[in-house]
């Protein structure tokens, strides 16, 4: 909502003079810059008011809640707690604090109580501007050394802003809500470690995470989803279900061991995907895990991506090798393996290529952020006029594959030419038009991210939504004009002259590791029948029925069913509970009645008893 604001009057005054409810608005947008409602312009202008439905308002609320938490901490711990920075983030906010004595999550409740008291005090949040020298002196008096360091080392402006609420003062650009009374629905979530400025060379601080919402209902929904996410945490379920292990101490952080059951699921995924790709004319290749450093110099990775690459290894002969962070240069070499004609294009090259990237230990996160992973990687080399058709086919393929894995809700983004780019504007315009036309022809809704394309070409990104409404960026389709030029690859056109192909980078799942982690959490470890590593388990009522159980096992195994037998001398109830813990979809119970009738009794997880049936009837069920 836009309103006119007269010179010398605050936005708050303008809201009231227009007869609007001040409680409905959080901050204002003036020419793309967010300002407090106390902002008083020197000239007449128009301000766009942001209400509680705007995502930017939520970020402001959360930033203000970070200040509220810092004030509560200072009240409780005084000079034994030094504040640093506290920005809003996706889940809410955090504040990094240097505590004299470390705190634990048990202490968060006490901090929350003090925060509630400050909310009830309804302290006005005031913005003030100071010269940097004044601000330095102020924070020296307040004994806040990190704020002084920021002012002396990081902030270039000669005039800075501070925010004051009661006795609490913080260095901040803002904006913020008008008073602490506006902050009602919040929760502190966790405590973790964080280095000052993110550098391992600096002191370890304590990072306190929290969240805040405008309504109690939103907060309750978030906390419920958070608890559900804990139950679905792939880092817990993975080892528990014998899917994977990560042994940071003896093997290394971010390096995954696929256990037999996890490898079975991965194999099923790989085979499913391979069949779909080969149906579309993809040619699979295998490439080395390391390469001469010159390859990465030519590609440009060594210059612009080196911080994510492991160090160079030098042989006795003085040759330099690097473990590969990407598969792209190898696929270019496949293209170069012989002279290509326009009649050979499009050439679709696919590989389940394992790559290695150096990630700091602090950002490693189960399967979602690792150092070694395998991409469902492919590169398509085509002529400019083939791009649109290739993109359309990729969009349909992506939809088909994601739907098969249970992801039917997703967001699509088209990122266009950035300020710094390679290639001609004409080629960029042609590429962007091809991407837009492809998306329009398929009928997919998408958002345009102006100027957010990679420097080497525009791209389409797909975010999937899981069972907890969380979004994950997996699929990507990127056009590249840079690498073909750097490697000097070409095809012979109809005019018998050399032409540079367009290179399409594409991944649908992203990496098997990350996608597998997402799948575990999406299904809470209860994979659909076609993906389950063990589809059925046979539970003899007692050991005297093990022979019949073995017959059933052999029959099912011969028919391609992934099946196990529990031959332990345990009671049936215990065996059923164990099968449920292992999240096995089908339980087959055999006892005297089943032996005599030549049948099996079937239970399906989540559905209970399905009754007695012949093996052929079960096989029909398993193919559904």
Furnish the topology, listing elements before pairings:
Elements (H helix, E strand, L loop, with lengths): L1 E4 L5 H7 L7 E6 L2 E3 L9 E7 L3 H23 L3 E3 L4 E2 L2 E8 L8 H14 L4 E6 H10 L3 H10 L4 E7 L2 E4 L13 E11 L8 E10 L2 H17 L1 H7 L3 E2 L11 E2 L1 H20 L3 E2 L5 E3 H7 L1 H4 L8 E2 L5 E4 L4 H8 L4 E2 L5 E10 L15 E11 L4 H18 L5 E6 L9 H18 L4 E3 L9 E7 L5 E10 L1 H6 L3 E2 L5 E2 L2 E10 H12 L12 E5 L5 H13 L4 E3 L6 H10 L4 E5 L1 H6 L2 E5 L3 E6 L1 H8 L2
Parallel strand pairs: 15-20, 19-26, 22-23, 29-30, 29-31
Antiparallel strand pairs: 1-4, 2-3, 2-4, 5-7, 6-7, 7-12, 8-9, 9-10, 11-12, 13-14, 16-18, 17-18, 20-21, 21-28, 22-24, 24-25, 25-28, 26-27, 31-32, 32-33
Structure report:
- The chain has 624 residues and is of the alpha+beta class.
- It has four domains: 2-51, no CATH class; 58-226, Threonyl-tRNA Synthetase, Chain A, domain 2; 244-289 and 324-523, 2-Layer Sandwich (BirA Bifunctional Protein, domain 2), CATH 3.30.930.10; 536-622, 3-Layer(aba) Sandwich (Rossmann fold), CATH 3.40.50.800.
- The strands form eight sheets. It has an eight-stranded mixed sheet, with helices on both faces. Strands 5, 6, 7, 11 and 12 form a five-stranded antiparallel sheet that branches.
- Helix 2 (55-77) crosses helix 3.
- It is globular.
- The two termini are 53 Å apart.
């Amino acid at each position: 909502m836009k309103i006119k604001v007269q010179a010398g009057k605050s936005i708050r005054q303008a809201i009231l003079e227009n007869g609007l409810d001040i409680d409905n608005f959080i901050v204002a947008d003036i020419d793309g810059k967010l300002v407090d409602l106390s902002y008083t312009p020197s000239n007449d202008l128009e301000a766009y008011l942001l209400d509680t439905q705007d995502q930017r308002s939520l970020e402001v609320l959360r930033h203000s809640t970070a200040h509220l938490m810092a004030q509560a901490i200072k009240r409780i711990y005084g000079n034994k707690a030094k504040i640093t920075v506290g920005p809003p983030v996706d889940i809410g906010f955090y504040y990094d604090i240097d505590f004299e004595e470390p705190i634990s999550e048990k202490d968060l409740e006490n901090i929350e109580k003090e925060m509630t008291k400050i909310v009830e005090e309804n302290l006005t949040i005031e913005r003030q501007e100071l010269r940097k020298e004044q601000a330095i002196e102020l924070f020296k008096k307040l004994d806040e050394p990190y704020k002084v360091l920021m002012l002396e080392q990081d902030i270039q402006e000669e005039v800075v802003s501070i925010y004051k609420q009661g006795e609490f003062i913080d260095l901040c650009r803002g904006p913020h809500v008008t008073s602490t009374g506006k902050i009602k629905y919040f929760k502190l979530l966790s405590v973790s470690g964080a280095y000052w400025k993110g550098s391992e060379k600096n002191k370890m601080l304590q990072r306190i995470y929290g969240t805040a919402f405008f309504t109690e209902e939103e907060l309750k929904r978030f906390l419920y989803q958070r608890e559900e996410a804990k139950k679905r945490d792939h880092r817990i379920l993975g080892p528990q279900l014998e899917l994977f292990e990560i042994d940071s101490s003896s093997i290394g952080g971010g390096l995954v061991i696929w256990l037999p059951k996890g490898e079975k699921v991965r194999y099923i995924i790989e085979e499913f995907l391979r069949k779909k790709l080969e149906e579309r004319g993809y040619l699979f290749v295998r490439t080395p895990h390391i390469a001469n450093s010159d390859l990465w110099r030519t590609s440009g990775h060594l210059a612009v991506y080196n911080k994510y690459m492991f160090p160079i290894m030098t042989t006795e002969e003085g040759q330099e090798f690097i473990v590969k962070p990407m598969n792209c240069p190898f696929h270019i070499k496949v293209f170069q393996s012989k002279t290509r004609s326009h009649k050979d294009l499009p050439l679709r090259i696919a590989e389940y290529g394992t790559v290695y990237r150096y990630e700091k230990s602090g950002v490693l996160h189960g399967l979602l952020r690792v150092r070694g992973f395998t991409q469902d990687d492919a590169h398509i080399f085509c002529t400019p006029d083939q791009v649109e058709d290739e993109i359309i086919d990729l969009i349909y393929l992506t939809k088909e594959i994601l739907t098969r894995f249970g992801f039917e809700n997703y967001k699509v983004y088209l990122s266009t030419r950035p300020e710094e780019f390679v290639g001609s504007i004409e080629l960029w315009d042609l590429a962007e038009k091809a991407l837009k036309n492809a998306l329009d022809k398929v009928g997919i809704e998408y958002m345009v991210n102006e100027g957010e394309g990679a420097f080497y070409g525009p791209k389409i990104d797909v975010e999937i939504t899981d069972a907890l409404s969380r979004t994950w960026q997996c699929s990507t389709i990127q056009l590249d004009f840079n690498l073909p030029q750097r490697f000097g690859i070409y095809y012979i056109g109809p005019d018998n002259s050399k032409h540079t192909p367009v290179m399409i980078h594409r991944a649908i799942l992203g990496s098997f590791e990350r996608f597998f982690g997402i799948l575990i959490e999406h299904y809470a470890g209860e994979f659909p029948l076609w993906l389950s590593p063990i589809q059925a388990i046979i539970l003899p009522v007692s050991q005297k029925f093990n022979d019949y159980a073995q017959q059933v096992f052999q029959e099912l195994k011969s028919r391609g069913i992934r099946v196990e037998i529990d031959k332990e001398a345990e009671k049936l109830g215990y065996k059923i509970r164990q099968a449920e813990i292992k999240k096995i979809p089908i339980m087959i119970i055999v006892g005297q009645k089943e032996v005599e009738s030549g049948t099996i009794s079937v239970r399906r997880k989540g559905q209970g008893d399905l009754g007695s049936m012949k093996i052929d009837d079960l096989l029909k069920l398993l193919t559904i």
